[in-house]
Amino acid sequence: MKRTIRTRTGFAAIAFALGLAAVTALPAQAAGTPHTNWNFSIDSTANVVAYDAGGTLWSYTSVSQGLQTAARRAIGPAGAALPKAFFVTDWNADVVPDLIVQNKNGTLTFRQGISTGGFTDSTIGSGWQNYEITVGEWKRTDKYPSIIARNNATGELFNYGNPSGKNLSPRVKIGAFWNGLSFNLLDWDKDGNNDVVAKNAAGQMKLYRASGGGSFISETRATIGSGWNSMTSIRTISVPGPHGSVGLMARDIAGVLHYYQTGKSSWAPRQTFTSGWSSFTLAGN
Fold it and tell me: I need a surface site. Which of 41, 178, 208, 241 has the fewest CB within 10 A?
């Protein structure tokens, strides 16, 4: 039995059922056929949320170690424009999963999940085409998740707060010289504050510990991994289980998914999951 896990990195949008769990059959209407309308919201127990190459948004309820297929349900219609990036999170803290979508035209969309099915869309920004973003809790006192964004032209790093559960507040600069880094929010040292883990051009994973008050701790940046250039997508995920866990889900160049669970300032042994994900755009958080 799966259970909903809500962590400081956001909702369990990509939560793997560890071990050889059986694939659960879904209703015939939803099992493999794209819809013409947004008939469903995202199940809070979904394992993977991803767009396929044809623009259909899918919710996967079982992606397990060693399995090559997964039960899935089409959330939205085929033919949607693929986003630059998107994140599943509880943006307004109503316990219904939402989407924050960074569109290729530069708009930023808050797609609010409706408990009875579907979404309500609001545009909460424009001019985002030249940014790399991630979504999650930045300050421990924040009621809602916010956005960490890097300006790709200047390398500056900003936090865009979410004071009302809908719109963004004016940005606050939190870093510089972030060019060439690909980053995620992750509480590496388990102190209750989300840190930033960032892959550099050499494939090293660097740790930027955060204070929980909106700034980074001033210290030498530790290297917590290497060889990450073999991965084409790296996202923070939450995983259900007896105690739950948080880590990074990475897709390698062959389209195989791997899970790197974090302990307290350490990695657990890597777990390898299904293949065939090369053409998908995977949700973060």
Answer: 241
